[in-house]
Design a protein that fits this description.
Blueprint lengths: L2 H14 L5 H12 L4 H7 L9 H29 L24 H14 L4 E2 L5 E2 L1 H4 L27 E2 L4 H10 L4 E10 L11 E11 L4 H16 L5 E8 L2 E10 L16 E10 L1 H6 L8 E8 H9 L12 H4 L10
Parallel strand pairs: 1-4
Antiparallel strand pairs: 2-3, 4-5, 5-9, 6-7, 7-8, 8-9
Helix pairs in contact: 1-4, 2-4, 3-4, 5-10
């Protein structure tokens, strides 16, 4: 029997194969496509075909192999259907997977991670604390006098019950707990949610996120504070960024300053975001008031320190150029999916 006759015989055998369950389908595969199968043996004979005929016979052998594989898939499908509905439809393992839209971290989480990463690389640890705080940790130990406006209902969400509990208005309360429970040197940042009784608008919200930093040790200076914040701004926004400090007031630092950064949107030339000044405020800072150190059990004669705090939403707004802070809270997939392709990943 020549090669052409043997091929025709195998083609007829493939066409005549009948279903008989999963075992019969597997037996057909072994008989035709296994290591010693009939189709496999015919493919091996291609080596002996004259060179001028190899192309023609190669095409025919491929057709034979595909016919055997197709018939095997049909036998498997028939075996699955005969086994009952519990077996479910046959699965085509060669079919491309169906993939849905991929999720991502929220842009606020992405920015918070980037901020934490910058300070971790220069030796800062991460500290956490409760979001419902007592008066001492939220106000008293931070040198807020009893008649300070921040204690009024217009700024603070108070919690009903004894003890003057309130939703924390800043993560400085975490710094108080760190100073009370540890000894200098202290170098830590405290990221977390904070709450203030403010009207919701494009530039403000009643709930937002902060990252506050604290460094307490012997001989800490304002120059170190400026150098630290200068390093932070360049690490996050690029080497061309500049910062400046303006005198300000905070109850828990003295001296205090507001930190401005050259506008990354207009390059310092002036635009709507920076109100045509070329500068954008990014955080507050200052040297820790000696009274605060005393309140936390640290000797202000032996130690000094600095503190700083920034709003994560403000930093995210500058990085991603989001015009309205309310977009972060609306869970609009059209907005959030912009951060899922890795373009803004930390």
């Amino acid at each position: 029997m020549n090669l052409n006759e043997r091929v025709e015989a195998v083609e007829a055998e493939i066409a005549a194969a009948q279903g008989g369950g999963a075992e019969a389908a597997e037996a057909f595969r072994i008989a035709m496509l296994g290591r010693n199968g009939k189709v496999t043996a015919l493919l091996e004979e291609l080596k002996q075909v004259p060179p001028e005929e190899k192309r023609l016979w190669g095409q025919r052998m491929n057709q034979l192999k595909n016919a055997a594989r197709t018939r095997w898939e049909e036998l498997k499908a028939a075996a699955g259907a005969a086994a009952g509905t519990s077996a479910g439809p046959a699965v085509d393992r060669t079919r491309p997977a169906l993939t849905g839209p991929a999720g991502s971290l929220h842009p606020i989480s992405l920015v918070r991670q980037r901020i934490i990463h910058v300070f971790e690389r220069i030796g800062y640890t991460v500290s956490q604390g409760p979001e419902v705080e007592d008066d001492r940790h939220n106000f008293g130990a931070l040198n807020f006098p009893p008649d300070h406006p921040a204690r009024d209902m217009q700024d603070t969400f108070f919690v009903e019950g004894p003890g003057g509990m309130a939703l924390r208005t800043h993560t400085s309360s975490v710094q108080v707990r760190v100073m009370e429970s540890g000894k200098p040197p202290i170098r830590t940042i405290s990221p977390g949610r904070v709450y203030r009784n403010e009207a919701i608008s494009a530039r403000a919200h009643c709930m937002f996120h902060q990252v506050e930093g604290l460094y307490v040790d012997k001989g800490v200076s304002f120059a170190e504070l400026k150098g630290t914040l200068h390093h932070f701004a360049k690490s996050l926004f690029g080497p061309e960024v500049k910062i400046r400090m303006r005198p300000s007031y905070f109850p828990f630092t003295e001296p205090s300053a507001e930190v401005d950064m050259s506008c990354t949107i207009c390059g310092g030339k002036g635009c709507a975001v920076c109100k045509h000044s070329g500068w954008v405020e990014i955080m507050g800072c200052g040297m820790v008031d000696p009274a605060v150190l005393t309140n936390c059990g640290i000797d202000p004669e032996a130690f000094s320190g600095f503190a700083f705090g920034m709003g994560v939403e403000r930093i995210a707004q500058l990085l991603y150029r989001v015009p309205d802070l309310r977009l972060y809270w609306e869970n609009d997939v059209r907005f959030l999916e912009q951060f899922s392709d890795g373009a803004f990943r930390a």
